[in-house]
Amino acid sequence: MSIKTEEISSLIKKQLEGYQDDLAAEEVGTVTYIGDGIARATGLENAMANELLQFSNGSYGMALNLETNDVGIIILGDFDEIREGDQVKRTGRIMEVPVGDAMIGRVVNSLGQPVDGLGAIKTDKTRPIEFKAPGVMQRKSVSEPLQTGLKAIDALVPIGRGQRELIIGDRKTGKTSIAIDTILNQKDQNMICVYVAIGQKDSTVRAQVETLKKYGAMDYTIVLTAGPSEPAPMLYIAPYAGAAMGEEFMYNGKHVLIVYDDLSKQATSYRELSLLLRRPPGREAYPGDIFYTHSRLLERAAKLSDKLGGGSMTALPVIETQAGDISAYIPTNVISITDGQIFLQSDLFYAGTRPAIDAGASVSRVGGDAQVKAMKKVAGTLRLDLASFRELEAFTQFGSDLDAATQAKLNRGRRTVEVLKQPVHKPLPVEKQVIILYALTHGFLDPIPIEDIGRFQDELFDFFDSNAADLLKQIKDTGDLPDTDKLDAQIKAFAGGFQTSKQLAAAKG
Ligand SMILES: Nc1ncnc2c1ncn2[C@@H]1O[C@H](COP(=O)(O)OP(=O)(O)OP(=O)(O)O)[C@@H](O)[C@H]1O
Ligand SMILES: [Mg+2]
């Protein structure tokens, strides 16, 4: 029996092919440098970008820089025991996090591991933390509203499902409160929320989770936290991990709201680890790809086409400014890649106008198409009116003799500012927002003293609840204004019986 040489060589070739595959998966490198949360290693020639690597002490890392001689690695976990000369192994897997229904109601870290002490999360589904954003053909334009429950936002800068709306302002101007209240308002709205806390104190996050629990919002919310004491890589990957958790629902036809609180701290951590990895620093010492870091993240928010199930992911990134400077590097970058911004002013905040939204500098570029009809009718010109009121107010500070028209404008403006105020954790359903804004724009509030506007509003809502629930329901169901004669009649009936605080005091004394 003769054996053909070709047969032998083909057999050997076959064997070798299999052998090489095994070898690739077992590729092991050596740590050459170890720093704060980062490492470099040689011998990992075939490592992929974002590949999960394992150090000999069991810790994981992610390949970030792929260079000719070595690989720059961000370490996800304990790096105290890693030494130069240690081995680091390829896993052949791209960095992933657990996803799925089991994550809802839990507080997790950037790796998707629970930190709430409620035991293991039982899910076998995972998603890569970096995922290509849906393309043009996979998207649909934003058309359904996302109600924040905040009058000043739903009326002035409406947000649609699938939109990216930036919340920007100095420290302590109420940025987080807006995000949390928006999550509270998603109760029974068929929405899943992901709150990503980046670099926030553990005590702060704890308080936020308590708030969410108190209002029943943890039933549909995932909280992901990367605290300030964690290594920089955990803060850097937090928003991507959160996005992966949200995407799981979006690609299954559901609606998701994701909050990144905040991307300034994420950018700082990225700068830190980029400098440690010796990437060339650019403007404000941020690495050259800081813009891409945020744009590829925010592009993942989308309204998907019907063919893909019609799910959506709405993103509310938060940016902290210094002294209201929105022209700094990171703020301008993020402003340019979002569909609008809600700009919070500390002056307004300290003057008691809360939420401290600057109507002139805030916009929503796509949400108008998604706004409910009734709201559009009552709030149509509110934003411009408010901006011109602010101008008029500044101007008339110097003069005393005002003509009647200017006086009326100022009167209305002051009442508008008052109506748009709203305390924390008190989101309002859209039908009630419509009622009070209708009353405002149709002059029913003009004779009411400023200090009584808040009470007028609350009592008006009570009145509608008990006397005109059908009108409220009609707005809710149709999204349009009911018969305005009926509406006028009800508001008049209420206003007729309303007592100003002076009247009340007089009656008492
Ligand atoms: N509409 C509001 N009415 C009354 N108080 C408010 C309102 N919004 C926020 N606050 C209060 O202002 C404080 C700061 O709010 P918040 O934490 O939301 O601001 P922030 O901009 O996220 O702050 P930080 O810079 O610390 O992240 C909180 O005590 C909050 O309760
Ligand atoms: Mg905050």
List the helices and strands and how they pair.
Elements: H1 5-25, E1 28-34, E2 38-42, E3 51-55, E4 60-66, E5 71-76, E6 87-94, E7 96-98, E8 107-108, E9 126-128, E10 145-146, H2 151-156, E11 159-160, E12 166-169, H3 175-184, E13 191-198, H4 202-214, E14 221-226, H5 232-250, E15 255-261, H6 263-276, H7 290-298, E16 312-320, H8 329-336, E17 340-344, H9 346-350, E18 363-364, H10 373-379, H11 382-396, H12 404-420, H13 430-441, H14 453-467, H15 469-478, H16 484-497, H17 501-508
Parallel strand pairs: 8-14, 12-16, 12-17, 13-14, 13-15, 15-16
Antiparallel strand pairs: 1-2, 1-6, 2-5, 3-4, 3-6, 4-5, 7-9, 10-11, 17-18
Helix pairs in contact: 5-6, 10-13, 11-12, 12-13, 13-15, 14-15, 14-16
The protein binds adenosine-5'-triphosphate and magnesium ion (MG).
Can you describe this structure in just a few lines?
This protein is an alpha/beta fold and 509 residues long. The longest helix is centred in the N-terminal third of the chain and has 21 residues, at 5-25.
